[in-house]
Amino acid sequence: MYPLYGPYRLVIDCVRPLTAAAPAKEPLQIPSAKEPPQIPPAKEPQIPSMKGPVSTGTGELKAKVVDLPPVGPVVPPAPMAPPPKNLNGGFSIARQLGLGISRVVIDAGHGGHDPGALGKGVTEAELVLDVALRLETLLQNAGVEVVLTRRTDEFLQLQERTAIANREGADLFLSIHANASANAQARGIETYFLNFANTMSAAAVAARENAASGQAMGALPDIVKSIALNNKLDESRDFATQVQKAMVERLRPTNRTVKDLGVKQAPFVVLIGAAMPSVLAEISFVTNAQEARLLKGGPYRQRIADALFAAIRKYQGSLRTATAVAHQ
Q1: pTM score > 0.90 for this model?
Q2: Which contacts of 181-184 are long-range, i.e. CB under 8 A and separated by 24 or more positions?
Q3: Which of 1, 53, 122, 135 could be bridged to 305 by S-S, CB 3.0 to 4.6 A?
Q4: Which CATH number is correct for 93-211+219-318, 3.30.450.40, 1.25.40.10, 3.40.630.40, 3.40.50.2300?
Q5: Confidence band, pLDDT 50/70/90 cuts, at residue 87
Q6: Is 70 exceeded by the pLDDT of residue 189?
Q7: Rounded distance, CA 141 to CA 277, Å?
């Protein structure tokens, strides 16, 4: 670019830059219909050997081939063992169905205008309510649902106590009582399950505990039928056995002369109609001077509650499926 004068003008030279000549294009090769196009074979990917170093872009990662041990035959899972048999050697319908215990109804006998057995400074109704409340605390602390038929000094009909257990969907029913006898030397512990009495002493205890039932003679056929069709007999007997054993073992260190009067059967109205295993525990004699003295104190009552708790837990555990047995 430079100027010119007379008149003033501006001259701009435009020069095209030199470029390399474009190469001549080869004519497009169209394959003939008789010869298919040749496709070059694909190259196999280069996989680094696991026996040598592998490049990672940031260095070398040395890999080592590890020989795995041979895989043995697959062992099937061990079968589950069934729960222990009933004491009679069989399996009750409850055990066949794998049923367990999660809710327990505790019945403190008598109450209100019915004080129960009267002993030497001990009233049955007050005694068994105190034991029931102590037992409730133990069971709740162990995660077991508990329902009490009464919490205060109130009277309930015998049939209402069982109705509460059925209404609450209980899995176990325990009625707590204290024994009495015209013989001041009578002592000991006995536990009952529902059935017809097979001894004179069992019949006498049932007569005393059923005195407040209010049942009329017309109810006799239905009562007899209910007892005869009792399909919980095996489980009730097993539970009664656990209660009796635990009571004797737990109380003997304190009451060395305690007598094991055994597990018995009798037609207790409070147990009739229960839809679950049910027992009645006679925890001691309030008419025996030595046992009445022990029953007045809190420590002995706590031992009774501990024993009943241990029995419930032991029976509860017997219904659970046992651990797997070794596969043969």
Answers
A1: no
A2: 181/285, 181/287, 181/288, 182/287, 184/287, 184/288, 184/289
A3: 135
A4: 3.40.630.40
A5: confident
A6: yes
A7: 23
